[in-house]
Design a protein that fits this description.
The complex is a heterodimer of chains A (319) and B (246). By secondary structure, chain A is mainly α. Chain A has 14 helices and 2 strands, in the order H-H-H-H-H-H-E-H-H-H-H-E-H-H-H-H. Chain A has helices at 9-26, 34-59, 67-85, 89-110, 116-136, 138-141, 159-181, 183-193, 195-200, 205-231, 241-254, 260-276, 282-297, 303-313, and strands at 147-148, 233-234. In chain B, strands 6-7-8-3-9-10 form a 6-stranded mixed β-sheet, sandwiched between helices. A 4-stranded antiparallel β-sheet of chain B has the order 2-1-4-5, covered by helices on one side. In chain B, helix 3 packs parallel to helix 5. Chain B is globular and about 50 Å long. Classes of the chains: A mainly alpha (319), B alpha/beta (246). Chain A binds chain B through residues 2-6, 8, 183, 186-187, 189-190, 192-194, 196-205, and chain B through 55, 57, 76-79, 81-82, 87, 89, 93-98, 102, 105-107, 109-113, 115-120, 155.
Chain lengths: 319, 246
């Protein structure tokens, strides 16, 4: 990074807020039972997925519908390396991240000049292709039979996974915040706002868009790879469209294009969905309706409720 | 001037056709380093097309653009911008969802490789210079037309360019802001020796800023000289000015 850049004060405030929140969640095992911890662990997984998708769609304006597929690329890479070659997680997970990043790089390049709905359709087609491959090549991927993945820890309890995903979410969120407050973050928002002007200022919009696509895919791959070693059994259902829909719902309810949005949207939506599961697909329909209403009236979702509190909290900085 | 002269900006035989319309036809012009050149002519004469050809928005069907002697052929808009060419748009383009401060900082960051200063400090001093302090944390889309024009211009001066191509920077804004923009242009021209090509219909400002003007009509360069010289030409009066300038 160039010497002529330093982070704005807002970056340090965000890091403090993330660390305080993590500290509070670290105390949760004192009061929460095993099932609640399990649900929260999955909630953290979705915080990572939703935040990294928001980087791509909310900040840069590339409304990809392949994010769940990149999580699956990460999960299956590590799972298959372990299953066929006996590779340990510390090799499998980085390999999953790298492969997801590479797939993201290629897909990002292909959809570069597509806008809105065309990009959505093309990325969705990519996700379906991965879905079909994982189902069809069952001799290699175990298809619908499911691929068993070695767990990260030898204990049965949820506690080590809870802390693993909490730490992972914290690291990812601080990383994403740093990215958003870096020159690349300004360029992302500039591109979403007015690509022609961004170019006229000297921003290499092609490179920025591909880089963001790749980074966001890598983060999804990271989350997916850890998820595989947590859940223990992978199936192509991971690339069911409802998974992608869930990510979109979380971001829109939390606040599309806001940093806080996916963080406060993911866990509650995941928790409510877990408890509503007995109603089957209606579950998703209800959330879809909420999304439509929110997109019509307020793209800033729940985050807009927190914005005034956040500003008041730091107001004394401005005297 | 000798034939070995390196022009700050030079176009050679630029031609661009949109369907049945020949928007620019064989446009050749040269602007010397440090010059402030006016570009005038009736609506539809091809001025904005010329600006778009120079800045890489459109690729010409024929001809070439040279910036400080270097051909811009095959370069993308962002590459041209990084060579030091700065443009403003006739319809003000800003990052509407970003604040005034963020717009200025983004303009700096985009070309920070050309500048060793501190972006945040430069942003603060530009806010002070443009008297936009009260609006520093307001989204650009909430500004008035004049404020937007001023901000767009200020963004162009965050990292001084070598050559500015400004498309009607004074249209539809009040006299005070007009004066601020003129002051900025003169300042960057004097201190950094920057070259300007300014499209404008404001004859009093053109006369004040530009020793030489180029007149475009129907896609061609129709005349060149001081404003008072070209304003006396019958075809310029008939095709553009309507009557002789006072």
């Amino acid at each position: 990074m160039s010497a002529s850049f330093r982070f704005p004060p807002s970056f340090h405030r965000s890091v403090i807020a993330i660390l305080v929140t993590v500290a509070l969640f670290a105390l949760a095992p004192l009061v929460a039972g095993d099932f609640a911890l399990h649900v929260l662990t999955i909630g953290f997984y979705y915080v990572i997925l939703a935040s990294s998708w928001n980087l791509l769609a909310g900040y840069t304006g590339q409304f990809s519908l392949a994010h769940h597929a990149f999580a699956a690329v990460g999960a299956y890479t590590s799972g298959l390396l372990g299953y066929h070659l006996g590779a340990p997680a510390w090799i499998g997970i980085p390999a999953g991240v790298v492969l997801a990043a590479l797939f993201g790089l290629v897909l990002g390049r292909l959809v570069l000049r597509m806008r809105a709905i065309y990009l959505a359709i093309a990325t969705w087609a990519f996700a379906e292709t991965v879905h079909i491959y994982l189902t069809a090549d069952y001799q290699f991927t175990r298809g619908e039979l499911g691929l068993s993945v070695k767990p990260l820890y030898s204990t049965i309890g949820p506690l080590p996974y809870y802390f693993t995903f909490l730490a992972l979410a914290a690291v990812v969120l601080i990383g994403l915040r740093a990215l958003i407050d870096s020159p690349l973050g300004y360029f992302m928002r500039a591109i979403k706002d007015n690509e022609l002007r961004a170019k006229s200022l000297g921003i290499d919009t092609t490179r920025v868009k591909i880089a963001v696509f790749s980074i966001s895919s890598a983060v999804a791959g990271l989350a997916g790879a850890f998820y595989g070693h947590f859940i223990g059994l992978l199936s192509p259902q991971m690339i069911d469209f409802s998974e992608m829909a869930k990510i979109v719902i979380m971001v829109v309810i939390g606040g599309f294009g806001t940093f806080l949005g996916p963080v406060i949207g993911a866990a509650p939506v995941q928790i409510v969905m877990t408890y509503l599961q007995k109603y089957g697909e209606w579950n998703l329909a209800v959330f879809a309706l909420i999304v439509i209403v929110l997109m019509r009236f307020s793209m800033e979702g729940l985050a807009s409720l927190f914005a005034p509190v956040w500003r008041r909290l730091w107001a004394r900085d401005h005297g | 001037m000798s034939s070995g002269q390196v022009w700050a900006l030079e176009t050679q035989g630029l031609r661009k056709r949109f369907g049945g319309l020949l928007a620019t036809n064989d446009v050749s012009l040269t602007v010397a380093p440090g010059e402030i050149r006016g570009l005038i002519g009736p609506n539809g004469a091809g001025k904005t097309t010329l600006v778009n050809l120079v800045t890489g928005v459109h690729a010409p069907d024929a001809g070439d653009v040279r910036l400080a002697g270097k051909s811009l052929q095959g370069l993308g808009m962002h590459q041209i911008a990084r060579l030091g060419l700065v443009r403003s748009f006739q319809v003000t383009r800003l990052f509407g969802n970003m604040t005034v401060r963020e717009n200025l900082l983004t303009s700096f960051l985009a070309r920070r490789s050309l500048h060793s200063g501190d972006g945040l400090a430069l942003t603060d001093s530009m806010i002070e210079l443009t008297k936009l302090g009260r609006l520093a944390d307001t989204q650009a889309k909430k500004l008035s037309g004049g404020q937007r024009a001023l901000l767009q211009m200020a963004c162009g001066f965050m990292v001084p360019g070598t050559c500015y191509v400004l498309d009607e920077p004074f249209s539809g804004i009040n006299p005070v802001i007009k004066d601020s923009i003129i002051d900025m242009i003169v300042d960057v021209n004097r201190r950094h020796g920057a070259t300007f090509l300014i499209v404008s219909h404001e004859m009093s400002i053109v006369r004040r800023l530009c020793p030489q003007v180029t007149v475009m009509m129907e896609g061609r360069v129709a005349a060149q000289g001081s404003l008072d010289e070209v304003a006396r030409l019958p075809e310029v009066i008939a095709g553009y000015l309507g009557k002789a300038l006072e």
